[in-house]
Amino acid sequence: MDAGPANIGRLPRKERSELMSEEQPTAPAMPRIGDPAPAFTAITTQGEINFPADYKGKWVILFSHPADFTPVCTSEFMTFAMMEEELRAYNTELVGLSIDGLYSHIAWLRTIKEKMTFRGWSNVEVNFPLIEDITMHVATLYGMIMPGESSTKAARAVFFIDPKGIVRTILYYPQSMGRNFDEILRIIKALQTADAFGVATPADWQPGERVIVPTAGSCGVAKDRMEGAEEGVECVDWFFCTRPISLEEVEAAIRKA
């Protein structure tokens, strides 16, 4: 029988499944939110790292970029470098990756320091590790290769990994678009605030704004909240209640330096 699209449905289930599997492209594997961050050992511009074991007890932003000596990536690395100390104040480390060799990385980072100017920044030194991944092992492990973009360059992926080595947030950007660094910092603060206070953060939340308290687990709690029995808690309806956490409280809870 001709196995064209019109006849696939007439094939026995096993043959149909095998044929469809052959025809469908395999999606790149990637960890999901809530998964342990895949472990690897890699050479970087700051020496060998064992990931995520070397970062136990710290938050990590693991991010990839398409290639060295490219303009969007250069602007991003300069921005990350300028943010590094601020991120460290929130117990967060940076680890970069591209499918380029170590010597290319070193030459590019020297060029950034010696020649590049962006947003008034110059003489910018990148001190966080940049992974050599010419075999694409790590990029494949984390699903950073997007065939629709390129099969030989990593997309602009960002993985937020918590102190227990668990993936908490994932962002992907196309090669043509630089990342939103205000959002990257906001995510770190929002994740840590949620953990510290047992709350959720609403759309566009910024530290100091009201947060969402967990939905009432019983009719009694819902009734008490709606009647204002919980101090500071305001409810629009039984399932949508907020409370204030000041900027000072947030900073005291999540800022480590």
Could you give a short description of this structure?
The protein is α+β, with helices and mostly antiparallel strands. The chain has seven helices and twelve strands. Helix content is 32%, strand content 21%.
Protein architecture, described:
By secondary structure, the chain is an alpha+beta fold. It folds into 2 domains: 40-181, Glutaredoxin (3-Layer(aba) Sandwich); 198-254, Antioxidant, Horf6, Chain A, domain2 (Antioxidant, Horf6, Chain A, domain 2). It contains 7 helices and 12 strands. The strands form 4 sheets. It has a 5-stranded mixed sheet with strand order 7-4-3-8-9, covered by helices on one side. A 3-stranded antiparallel sheet has the order 10-12-11, with no helix packed on it. Strand 11 (234-237) and strand 12 form a beta hairpin. The protein is elongated and about 65 Å long. The N and C termini lie far apart (70 Å).
